[in-house]
Design goal:
The chain is mostly helical. Among the domains are: 32 residues; 78 residues, Alpha-Beta Plaits (2-Layer Sandwich), CATH 3.30.70. Helices cover 48% and strands 12% of the residues. It has a three-stranded antiparallel beta sheet.
Length: 162
């Protein structure tokens, strides 16, 4: 196993009319520059702090303190939209041992004011949606009231005259 790791090969293709030591060195420099750039990109990607919805481990790993709020609603897409609007870093954990399932929202302690505002807006949207009458129910009631008109029945008959 150790031999496979230490003995890696690289294929370097150079298009040239005359192969000299100088062109080989130039190709190797280009390859090394490419490797250095890709390592820098990987290091920069590791250093980026995730934002928005993330896992609880990622949230705790940022060492900024974590707070939580329990939520009883099962419809969380609306909450995620509002939290994204306010720029809150959060994680949602489902507790399936309780029926109906209970959800807990974890967030950074420094985002507490923003999350409170986001939660208030989400709660206002939920109450508005509950109070709003259903359009489908109104349509079904109206459809019951309107009596369907009977379809015209055509009778076709062929008569032969002599």
């Amino acid at each position: 196993m150790q031999e496979e790791v230490t003995n890696r090969t690289v294929n370097l293709a150079i298009t040239t009319t005359k192969l000299t030591a100088r062109t080989i060195m130039k190709g190797l420099r280009m390859f090394l520059n490419h490797c250095a750039k890709s390592k820098a990109k990987k290091a920069a990607a590791k250093d980026e702090v995730p934002h928005g919805k993330q896992t609880v481990q990622e949230l705790i790993g940022q060492n900024q303190g974590v707070s939580s709020i329990p939520i009883a609603q099962t419809e969380l897409k609306g909450f995620e939209r509002v939290a994204k609007k306010y720029g809150v870093d959060f994680a949602i954990r489902k507790d399936g041992s309780v029926d109906p399932p209970r959800y807990t929202v974890f967030f950074k302690a420094r985002d507490e004011a923003a999350l409170t505002a986001a939660y208030k807006e989400y709660a206002a949207q939920e109450t508005f949606n509950k109070d709003r009458p259903s359009v489908r129910k109104a349509l079904t009631k109206l459809a019951e009231i309107v009596v369907p008109t009977p379809k015209k029945v055509r009778e076709k008959s062929q008569e032969r005259a002599l």
